[in-house]
Amino acid sequence: MKVVNLVLGLCAISVVGHNFGTLKANAQTTNDWVDGALGRYSSQIFNAGMLSSGTTEFQESWDGSLGGNYTMREGGQIVSGTLSECVATKVQVMRCLWKDRYGEGYLEVTFTEDFTNFNGYWGTLDSEPLFRWSGSR
């Protein structure tokens, strides 16, 4: 009898059986999905008591680091900001540092399996992400 230990994403399992041929696992690791999340999304960001429309773009830099930028409409103006220090915290979940003229804080988003949408929340450096930030392609 053969025991095979597999690590699938963040879970470890053991498979017990006889005479394994080729064992294939179709599992995503924490970083395998990131390329699918890159690109531009139309977004809605909770700002000043209401949802503001704009864009959110996730990018990979020449050095492999993840970041991006965003815009949101505020009255007749467009406010722009940056996303930096983005990391995949688990499969299809990314955490970034946002920064614009109002301050900075953390954004945590969860992407749909096909990367057509994300739902997330933002907060300041001193607060948990509680304010809505979503996007769709």
Would you spell out the secondary-structure blueprint of this structure?
Elements: E1 2-8, E2 11-17, H1 34-37, E3 39-47, E4 50-60, E5 66-74, E6 77-90, E7 93-100, E8 103-111, E9 117-124, E10 131-136
Antiparallel strand pairs: 1-2, 3-4, 3-10, 4-5, 5-6, 6-7, 7-8, 8-9, 9-10
Structure overview:
The radius of gyration is 19 Å and the shape is globular. A hairpin with a 2-residue loop joins strand 3 and strand 4. The N terminus is likely disordered. Helix content is 3%, strand content 64%. 18% of the residues are buried. With 137 residues, the protein is mainly beta.
Low-confidence region ranges: 1-27
- Fraction in beta strands: over 45%
What is the percent of helical residues?
under 10%
pLDDT average, as an integer? Answer: 83
Number of strands: 10
Distance, first to last CA: 49 Å
- Total count of helical runs of at least 4 residues: 1
Radius of gyration: 19 Å
Label the overall shape: globular
The ordered H/E elements are: EEHEEEEEEEE
Major beta-sheet overview: 8 strands, antiparallel, barrel
Lateral arrangement of strands in the main beta sheet: 3-4-5-6-7-8-9-10
Structural class: mainly beta
